[in-house]
Amino acid sequence: GVQTCALPILAHRVIGFFSLLMVASVPVFSGYYVTLNDNEINPGKGKNLVNMYVTNESDDMKAIMLSPKLRNVDSSGVETVSETEDLVVFPAQLILPPRSEKAVSIRWLGEQNISRERSYRVIVDELNVGKKQAKDSKIIRTKVRYVKSIYVAPYKIVNSLMLEDARRDVLEDGTSVLKFKFYNNGTVRELLRNVVLEYKSMDRIASLTITSDEMEPFKSNRNILANNRLEGWIPWPEDIDTKVDKFYLLDYNLDEDGEE
Q1: 3 state DSSP class of 205
Q2: Which of 207, 123, 132, 127 lies closest to 163, judged by CA?
Q3: What is the pLDDT of residues 210-244, one digit of tens each?
Q4: Other CB atoms within 10 Å distance of the CB of residue 238
Q5: Preceding amide of 27 cis, omega within 30
Q6: What is the pTM assigned to this prediction?
Q7: Taking burial as the number of CB atoms within 10 A of a residue's CB, which of 116, 157, 181, 243 is the most buried?
Q8: Residue 86 CA, distance from chain mean position
Q9: By three-state DSSP, how is residue 14 classified?
Q10: Are 199 and 182 in contact (CB under 8 A)?
Q11: What ranges make up the beta strands (E) of 57-175?
Q12: DSSP state of 214
């Protein structure tokens, strides 16, 4: 009885697997794209405007909506966006005929001299224009969202990163880890690629290099915006005594040959 039950279940799983393969192999076509070649506004130097281009490469008319947002990133690297009146996009809505391109202006309306770089997103969404997709179409037409970064430069550029905290901790599953918290007290963003920490063990000074792809939970290069913090951890290194309780930031973002 067990064998005869297993066959229909197996057949069902195989059919499901092949259906999944068929869906995965169907081409996805959005029909439009967004180009932003210059994403930095510098009001202190009189540069209050950048242009973005929206291109409709399909045979259908497209309606596009553009929304500027202030970018916020918490210490665990999770990003949220909020409304802003300092950055405006004009026009905020586009009707794009087939095979056409239109320019969009992104203008800074905030103060001319800012002390720290500000980070924004321009979110580009396709709106429904009432045309239904043909039932026999083999192309899945998705409503694609583009998210573009805009940075507003401060009047003075200062690169500075602080190690606010670094210590041994134990996770809920019993794993011993080295937890750390960095603070970007500079005036511009820092794309963190690696850090070199210094510590004292057994009366000797030693160093530890941590690359961003080792850092949990993100395991990739992370942008730390000006005046923002970033927290993470790595498994406690086996060659470091668990009694070590003080770490110092020696350097960061070194190339493979040891130079910044």
Answers
A1: strand
A2: 207
A3: 999 999 998 898 899 999 999 999 999 999 999 99
A4: 6
A5: no
A6: 0.79
A7: 116
A8: 22
A9: helix
A10: no
A11: 62-73, 79-83, 87-90, 93-96, 100-108, 118-127, 146-152, 161-170
A12: G
